[in-house]
Amino acid sequence: MQNPSNVKAAILATKPAGVDVHTGIEAKDGRKDYNLTKLFIDYCKEGFADQ
Prior knowledge:
This protein is about 45% helix and about 0% strand. The relative contact order is 0.27. The chain starts with 6 loop residues before the first helix and ends with a helix. The longest helix is centred in the C-terminal third of the chain and has 16 residues, at about 35-50. The chain contains 2 helices and no strands.
C-alpha cells in the first residue's frame, strides 16, 4: 500500500512509469485528507525527479 511515508522509496526502488493511490491518505472519518494527499504528491514528485 502506498502512502506518503513510503511512496518515494517505492518509486526509487521500482522505477515505475506512474503510481496511484486509493488508501493510505484518509482522515479518521474515511474521507481523503487534503494534507496527506498533497504530501503524497510532493513525495511522488521527489521520487520521480530522483530516478
